Amino acid sequence: MKPSILVGGQAVIEGVMMRVPGAYATAVRDPKGQIKLQRHEFTSVTEKSRFWKRPIFRGMASLYEAMKMGMKTLQWSADVAMPEEAEKEPSKIADWLSMVFAIVLALVLFMIAPYWITTHVLGVGKQALLFNVAAGAMRISFFLLYLFIISMLKDVKRLFQYHGAEHKVVYNFESGKDINIKNAQNFPTPHPRCGTSFMFIVLVSAILVFAILDTLVIAAVGNISLAVRLGMHLPFIPLVAGVGYEVIKLTSKNESILFRILRKPGLWLQNITTKQPDDDMVEVAITSLQSAFGERYEETTGQEYTAEAIG
Predict the structure, then answer these.
(1) Are the C-beta atoms of 146 and 200 separated by less than 8 Å?
(2) Which residues touch 105 (CB under 8 Å, ≥6 apart)?
(3) ∠ at Cα 271 (56, 255), nearest 5°?
(4) Chain Cα centroid distance, residue 11
(5) What is the C-alpha separation between 252 and 201, in angstroms, rounded?
(6) Directed axis angle between helix 195-221 and helix 226-233, to 10°?
(7) Is 147 helix (H, G, I), strand (E, B) or coil?
(8) pLDDT tens digits for 96-124?
């Protein structure tokens, strides 16, 4: 049986972040063509706490850590890749407004708009399962449309190329073959444990979790207003993420027909969020992986692995 190891990553601006047991590193190519590195020791709370190691809860903790880590590395990559912007006086107000706008946009696209249309246009607010299936279908449609639109932007396309480079290098590492540009380029860009696949699984999991919640509330009080439904569902988003995390762990490791079918939509979706990288991008991803492992790189590579990370 193949050993397992947690290796994942994230595309950043002109670079890649790689996360391995005990550390993560980010490699970014600056405007002069040089690769800059930043490495941090890191131990997940899921490895230090029995509570956060439990199913569902480990997904909640992992999502929070990934978001925090991702924002930090994205900011550093922007400073390296766009030094002229980094030299400008940072505006905390502008940063705060950007964050608020992003949150509001996400709420409107993925919660308020689907719920309003399902309630006032389709008129199925009192039918828990039908309501959440309809709202969930719209949420997924808006998500696909959003990804398709931003994928046309030049900067986003480059980000998606680095995303593809990250996946190729993770595949190369898991294969046990020598990790180099030529070998990595032979692997595909879609990967079953990608964060894109995770997001799709979360959107599907939300249909089931919210349908159960609505059924219980309707049975107790008889009806749910739009405002009450939003107020109830928002606090349960971490639970939905936890459920999605467990589902994607199962689908990534299990080769039965059912789980292969469940993997397909996420892999198809990555045809949007991953693009074929050039060799320089793959070089950056390899450098990030090497830096993340540090002194353990030689002893860790060269054997086949199964992995459980979302990358």
Answers:
(1) no
(2) none
(3) 50
(4) 10
(5) 12
(6) 130
(7) helix
(8) 787 788 889 889 989 999 999 999 999 88
Pairing of strands 35-41, 23-29: antiparallel
Say if CB 239 and CB 56 are below 8 A apart.
yes
Contact 272, 151 (CB under 8 A): yes
Query: Cα–chain-centroid distance for residue 267?
Result: 13
- Tokens describing residue 129: 């399962």
Exposure letters 36-63 (e unless 16+ CB within 10 A, then b): bbbbeeeebebeeeeebeeeebbbbbbb
Q: With left for phi above 0 and alpha for psi between -120 and 50, is residue 294 left, alpha or beta?
A: left
For residue range 228-272, what is the model confidence (pLDDT) as tens digits? 999 999 999 999 999 988 888 777 666 677 777 777 888 889 999
Rounded Cα distance between 37 and 265, Å, is: 34
The runs of H, that is alpha helices, within 176-275 are 181-185, 195-221, 226-233, 237-253, 257-273
SS3 string, 221-232, reads HCCCCHHHHHHH
Q: Which residues contact 91 (CB under 8 A, 6 or more apart)?
A: none
